[in-house]
Amino acid sequence: MFRKFLTLFFILCTVVVGYSQQTISVRKNPSENNLKIKPLKDTVFYVGVNNPFKIIPHLKDCSKIKVTTDNGVIELADTCTYQFTPAALKPTHIFITKGDKTTTIDATVKLTPDPTWNMLDTTNTVSIKKLQDTKGLIFVLENFKYGCSFKVMWYTILIERNGAAIADKQVKGPQFPSNFFSAVMPADRLTFYAIGIEGPDGFRQLPDIHVTLK
User: Fold this and answer.
1) pLDDT score, position 183
2) Is the peptide bond preceding residue 57 cis, with omega within 30 degrees of 0?
3) Cross-strand pairs, 36
4) pLDDT at 122
5) d(CA 11, CA 3)
6) Residue 56 CA to chain centroid, in angstroms?
7) CA distance 5 to 15
8) For a FRET experiment, which of 17, 114, 134, 168 has its CA 20 to 30 Å from that of 92?
9) Which strands make up the sheet holding 65-69, listed edge to edge?
């Protein structure tokens, strides 16, 4: 009876130890969990823009590493440096896979800031001649670390003189209406509204712009 007990005990121990060893074998190596990403131009990633980043701690060889995401595209740009282009504004993860081990990293994604129309001075006035030189609404992102452009799809312009509206016209594209400069004069107040633009992260509508001509 005692021998049977020892035999049964040995079998149970073997099963438990084997199960324990199997559980430990599929756990991630702690060193793999220390992998992180470092954006090279900003602390976040912008939708529709090529955002460079690298893996830290620095790895000399990334040929055996696969870097993917659940939002957009990641491409290898240089030795262990990657370009990440998020597709949408949503919770985003980057996956670093080496062998059968995968590290999941949360990534902060934002839309690009609103571009601005840099024709205005500090008093929100602009000369008619300056508008003639620009020939339309051109929006840019100043002091932005990424190169991106914005296309004006449409806008509406309201012209007021002495407090009364004299014109309210919808315009397609960035150009001013053909009769715009013959219709305005100094001291007129302009309101550009319903401004629709297309940028690297898609379509958006900009806030109204109020300006006085001089």
Assistant:
1) 93
2) yes
3) 56
4) 74
5) 12
6) 22
7) 15
8) 114
9) 65-69, 92-98, 101-107
Q: What is the CB neighbour count within 10 angstroms for residue 139?
A: 19
Closest Cα to residue 171, out of 200, 192, 186?
Answer: 192
- Token digits of residue 90: 């949503």
Place of tokens 């602009």: 126
3-state SS, the chain, equals CHHHHHHHHHHHHHHHHHHHHHHHHCCCCCCHHHCEEEECCCCCEECCCCEEEEEECCCCCCCCEEEEECCCEEEEEECCEEEEECCCCCCEEEEEEECCEEEEEEECEECCCCCECCCCCCCCEECHHHHHHHCECCCECCCCCCCCCCEEEEEEEEEEECCEEEEEEEEECCECCCCHHHHCCCCCEEEEEEEEEEECCEEEEECCEEEEEC
Closest CA to 195 of 156, 160, 168, 169: 156
Is residue 172 within 8 A of residue 190, CB to CB? The reply is: no
In this structure, which amino acid lies at residue 45?
F
- Report d(CA 43, CA 169) in Å as an integer: 42
Phi-psi region at 17: left, alpha or beta (left = phi > 0; alpha = psi -120 to 50)? alpha
d(CA 137, CA 48): 22
Q: What is the pLDDT of residue 18?
A: 41
